Amino acid sequence: MLTIHTAGLLLPGPGAAPLPEGAVAVEGDRIVAVGAYADVAEAHPLARVRRWPGLLTPGLVHPGAAALLEAAYHPDPREAQELGEEPLTGDRLAALGMDDARWGASARRGAQRLLRHGTTAVTGPFARAAVRMAVARAGLAQVVRQAPPGLAPALDPLPALPEGAAPDAAFAGALAPGARADFAVFDVPDAAALAARGAGSCVATVLAGRLVYRAR
User: Fold this and answer.
1) Which of 13, 55, 96, 151 has the highest CB neighbour count under 10 A?
2) CA-CA-CA-CA torsion for 83, 84, 88, 90, nearest 10 degrees?
3) Average pLDDT, stretch 53-66?
């Protein structure tokens, strides 16, 4: 079924002009149209429409995913009282006595948390087979990008950008007909507000045309 996603402002890709009341039409796992909502809706009158608040952008790429998924433990919600909710590293990670099964479960939770921050692509490679499987099953794309040295594991990919870089430097690609339908929506009015509030403002993530995260 063809679905149109529309928001108050659309950023089609790095360096592209913002499009007020923009829209992306998706069929299957592909984008079939990008443009002003009125034009896209007129061309596809039978499409289902999802209206989102804020800013619609390409999905983000996380340059520190290897460290986040292979050198940090993401606690199960049932462990929150004992371990907290944030990724564990260093001595706290070493005390857990990790094995392959626990690394796989941690990576699955970590991947879901990345999706909740608008991430649709991650950098590799991943040394642990359990982590590679978790990334593949989540549907996250893998790209080749140099991670900044000494990058601390964090769920939000935006702080990893070079100082002064615009948020579109974190885009995994561009929204264009024929491209895989990977994008995110943030509850902010524009790119400047996204830079200020971070990717934790994500309200929806679409991965290969599927709505994989929606804030309640």
Assistant:
1) 55
2) -60
3) 93
Q: Encoding tokens for residue 204?
A: 């929806």
Structure tokens at 140: 């996250």
- Note whether 181 and 26 are within 8 A (CB): yes
**How many residues are given for the chain?**
216
CATH 2.30.40.10 region(s) of the chain?
3-59+171-214
Q: What is the pLDDT of residue 52?
A: 97
CB-CB neighbours of 182 under 10 Å: 29
Of residues 114, 5, 25, the one with CA closest to residue 62:
114
Query: Per-residue pLDDT for 209 more than 90?
Result: yes
Assign domain 3-59+171-214 to its CATH superfamily. Answer: Urease, subunit C, domain 1 (2.30.40.10)
24 pLDDT exceeds 90?
yes
List strands edge to edge, sheet with 141-143: 60-62, 119-123, 141-143
Contacts of 163 (CB under 8 A, 6+ apart): none
Does the reported pTM lie above 0.70?
yes
* Pair 122, 140: CB distance under 8 Å: yes
